[in-house]
Amino acid sequence: MSPQAPRTERLTDSHGRVIHDLRVSITDRCNYKCVYCRTGEVGAQYPELKIEEYLRLIGLFVSLGITKVRLTGGEPLLRRGLLELVRELSHMRTFDGQPLSLALTTNGHLLDSLAQPLKDAGLHRVTVSMDAVDAPVFERITRVPGSFQAVLRGVRAAKQAGLEPVKINCVLLRGFNDDQLEGFAHFARSEDVIVRFIEFMPLEEDRLWSPDIVVPLREIVDRIGRALPLIELPPNEASETARRYGFGDGRGEIGIIAPVTQAFCGACSRVRLTSDGKIRTCLFSQIEHDLYGRMRAGAGDAELREYIARTVYAKEARHHIGEADFLKPSRSMVHIGG
Q1: pLDDT score, position 46
Q2: Judging by DSSP bridges, how do beta strands 278-280 and 270-273 pair with one another?
Q3: 99 secondary structure, DSSP code
């Protein structure tokens, strides 16, 4: 039996963590076929909700203390109604009466033409997934010709629109793109963006993952440090997932997200909502909680809030990557939401 949530004004779990960060997938469709994510043959598997349905569900979370909402996919820029969704979210207020912190994660392919409209609609920040700074390597990973230049235009459009700080997420795989490390360090400085390297996690559709493919935090720091001296920076907040590093001359920043070798579960502040309205309390959850199903069946807001609180209270203490009893989650990353 799962633990019962205490009556509280803000979302907390049974491990004492305050949950204030909601990631919402608004589609599991994607226009890329990245080798570490998709087999290249599997497209959308789950239905999408109506924009007004996402707004109602997100509003329930916000009323329980969520202060940050990040829209994800799949590829969220493919979703019709995205600008309307952002515009309506920009009018929501947190438990303390402050505007929501609104961000979006994208592969950047369509960002060139959408960056300014998203900013005008009320989006604050954007993170772009970009796994190489060398065009042939990038396009070998995405399996989409011309993708590198499209993403580069999108990154620059996001900066011009003021969706800053623009962050670049690079998933590192040994033998695929780990030769891009030093190039990314220079890219962070030349483009004035924050590049964050992410250890490869077992969330792909295929069975590619193994510990040998993971490029660990310590190796990343050592290799970049030999090219450009690094200084570790303090976290912006206790629940921040990235370890921050600045360059010795004070120009530029990188981050490293190391869920495999240096897990940060103890400070986790996030919960996820899939494109079909299921709550996932961890990326590696084996169980999904059908919030949308209850809403569709006629549950009122008070009942739905109680369900959210109970579900979040039972959030897992940690993941078990690398342990003998580890099981891959029931969905791959593209179908969970980044």
Answers
A1: 80
A2: antiparallel
A3: B
Residue type, 130: M
Dist CA 306 CA 25 (whole Å) = 22
Residue 338 has pLDDT above 70, yes or no: no
For tokens 């199903």, the residue is 293
Separation of alpha carbons 229 and 226, rounded Å: 6
48 vs 203: which has the higher pLDDT: 48
Q: Is 37 left (phi over 0), alpha (psi -120 to 50) or beta?
A: alpha
Q: What is the widest separation between alpha-carbon atoms in the chain?
A: 60
pTM exceeds 0.85 for this model: yes
Q: What is the pLDDT of residue 337?
A: 67
Q: Which of 334, 338, 218, 308 is nearest to 8 (CA)?
A: 308
Quick check: helix, strand or coil at residue 10?
A: coil
> Are the C-beta atoms of 94 and 100 separated by less than 8 Å?
yes
The answer to whether 273 and 71 have CB atoms below 8 angstroms apart is: no
Give the strand pairing for 230-233 and 68-72: unpaired
- Strands, sheet with 194-199, edge to edge from the N-terminal-most edge strand: 230-233, 243-247, 253-257, 194-199, 167-172, 125-129, 101-106, 68-72, 21-25, 270-273, 278-280, 289-290
Q: Over range 225-250, report the average pLDDT.
A: 90
pLDDT per residue as tens digits for the range 52-88: 999 999 999 999 999 999 999 999 999 999 999 999 9
**Quick one: the chain helix, strand, coil %, rounded to 5?**
35, 20, 50
Q: How does strand 194-199 pair with strand 167-172?
A: parallel
Look at residue 7 and tell me whether its pLDDT is greater than 50: no
Domains, the chain, with CATH or none = 21-336 (3.20.20.70)
Task: Report the distance separating Cα 312 and Cα 306, nearest Å.
Answer: 10
Average pLDDT over residues 314-323: 73
